[in-house]
Amino acid sequence: MKIELKGRIDSSNAAQIESEINSQIGDFKGEVILDASELDYISSAGLRVILRLKKANGDTKVINCSPEVYEIFDMTGFSEMMEVSKAYRKISVEGCEVIGEGANGIVYRTDPDTIVKVYKSPDSLEDIHNERELARKAFVMGIPTAIPYDVVKVGDLYGSVFELLDAKSFAKLINEGEDVEELTKQSVDILKTIHSSMLKDGELPSKKKEGIKWAEFIADYLPEEIGAKLVKLFEEIPETNNIIHGDFHIKNIMKQNDENLLIDMDTLSMGHPVFELAAIYAAYIGFGCIDKENAAKFFGIKREQTENIWKYTVKYYFEGKSEEFISEVCKMIEVICYARILRWMIRRGEDANEEQKQVREFCENYLIENVPKINKLYF
Question: What pTM did the predictor assign?
Answer without folding.
Answer: 0.80
